[in-house]
Amino acid sequence: MRGKKGTFTLMMLLAAVMFCTMNVKTAQAEEDEVRAVWVSFYEYKGAGLKNKPEGTFRVNADKMFRNIRDNGCNTVYFHVRAFDDAIWPSDNFEFSTYMGQEPEYDPLAILIETAHKYGLSFHAWMNPYRITQKKIYDPSKPSTNSRILLAVREVIDQYEVDGIHFDDYFYPSKGHKQYSKYSSLSQAEKMSYTNTMVQSVYNTIKQKSPSLQFGISPAGNVEYCESIGSDVKKWMSTPGYVDYIVPQIYWSNCYKMGGKKTKLFDQRLRQWKRLNTANVKMYIGLGLYRGGMKDSLDLGWRKSSKVVASEISKTRRSAKISGYSLFSYESLYKKSCQKEVKNMLSRISSVTITGSDGSSLKPGQQLALKATVWPLRLGQNVVWKSSDKSVVSVSARGVVKARSAGVAKLYACKGNRKAAIRIQVTE
Length: 427
What we know:
Elements lengths: L33 E6 L14 H17 L4 E7 L3 E2 L7 E2 L11 H11 L3 E6 L3 E3 L2 E2 L5 H17 L4 E4 L12 H4 L4 H22 L4 E4 L5 H6 L4 H4 L8 E2 L9 E3 L2 E3 L1 H12 L5 E6 L13 H4 L3 H11 L5 E4 L11 H11 L1 E5 L11 E3 L1 E5 L8 E4 L5 E3 L4 E4 L3 E9 L2 E9 L2
Parallel strand pairs: 1-2, 1-14, 2-5, 3-4, 5-8, 8-9, 9-10, 10-13, 13-14
Antiparallel strand pairs: 6-7, 11-12, 15-17, 16-20, 18-21, 19-20, 21-22
Helix pairs in contact: 1-2, 3-5, 10-11
């Protein structure tokens, strides 16, 4: 494809290319795998999104979503409504104090535009019932559902979001200031009221567009979910509630329970898979934030820096699981989590080779190859190797030179990943 002497057009070598990646599942091989990350309202300030002029906000949003893309993610669950508030201009909801004073620009519009620029799906993450940290709307009241639907409609009617996302805050649990207010309700009653809301949100979203997604991320403990009104068994067995579910299985396989080491991640993973009788799309929430944490019960995070990497491998081996989500964005760069991140990126990484122009070379001819490493955060430097330098040599920059007749393989290596291409040299 070059006109200079020593290079030429060789169109047939594409058919001879053999890509060898060594992953169980790569981004290229499994385009439908969801690799998500949560961006919480706690992270606005650290990401440079709080009380910023529009120009600065745009620059910082661009950096954040570029970082997310470069860490191998393709989906973002972004907190747009953490309480009874909004990060978009609204006549019905106060602007989020966690993002500061309401600006003259539209933060949500910029965030969605920028996420899509980097090929990321953007799901608007909302907490349906929370008014403040200590107070919730009464889930039994029709007015509560109306207010939740009002927020959902504002977002799906005004913005090009890819979905609406709820997390695990429903009825208050023990220790919450309002727990006693609802303690007289049975578990079945709580789930009934919550189901009415969830079903109405699902129907509202589908009326807007069948392609819009609605998902919920419940706590990883099924019994706890049900105690606060999350009817996860129904959501995973009956159509019309959710498109996807992301159980937060934030444990390792070295958890002390009853004085014994328990493989809690594996145990909970099997439980969620068994419950998913309707084959709802399931992505597993992974506790990246726990990397390096010294926990007296969950010892795995202190003993190993490959917890998340191992858990991702397990999700990829299961036909019932379609991806994972990391909690949370700041953990990708938090010092205590960096060993986990490094091992995670290495586990999901892949290398591909492009730039092949023909099926064979003549002695003395050259060919420029290019290797691409994914995720991009790993860097694009690779080590090039030839299986037989007497047949074909390759420079550190991927320039191939045919030397004598024969067949050789060229490898682009990055850590424990490599891609290979077969080159034939003919007289």
